[in-house]
C-alpha cells in the first residue's frame, strides 16, 4: 500500500507540473496551452500529488523502524 501512495504521488506531481506549464503558456503543443484554467488545475493536482508522495514516503520510513 505504501508504494501505491508514492507512485501515485509521483505521477500526479508530474502531471501537475506539465499541466501548469501548459496553462501558463510555457510548454506548447496542445489545446491546453495558454488556457489559465489548466494552470490552476495543474497546481491543485500537483499539491494533491505532493501530499500523496509525502504520505507514501512517511509510511516507508515509519515501517522500517
Summary?
The chain is an all-alpha fold and 65 residues long. It has one domain (2-64). The protein has helices spanning 2-24, 36-64.
The span between the termini is: 17 Å
Give the low-confidence spans.
none
The mean pLDDT is 89
Beta-strand content estimate: under 5%
The structural class is mainly alpha
State Rg: 14 Å
What does this structure look like?
There is one protein chain. The protein has helices at 2-24, 36-64. It is mostly helical and 65 residues long. It has one domain. α1 (2-24) runs antiparallel to α2 (36-64). The longest helix has 29 residues, at 36-64. The protein starts with a helix and ends with a helix. The mean pLDDT is 89.
Descriptive tags:
mainly alpha
Write the layout of secondary structure elements.
Elements: H1 2-24, H2 36-64
Amino acid at each position: 500500500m505504501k508504494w501505491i501512495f508514492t507512485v501515485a504521488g509521483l505521477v500526479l506531481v508530474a502531471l501537475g507540473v506539465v499541466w501548469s506549464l501548459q496553462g501558463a503558456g510555457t510548454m506548447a503543443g496542445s489545446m491546453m496551452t495558454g488556457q489559465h484554467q489548466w494552470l490552476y488545475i495543474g497546481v491543485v493536482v500537483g499539491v494533491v500529488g505532493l501530499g500523496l508522495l509525502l504520505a507514501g514516503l512517511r509510511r516507508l520510513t515509519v515501517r522500517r523502524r
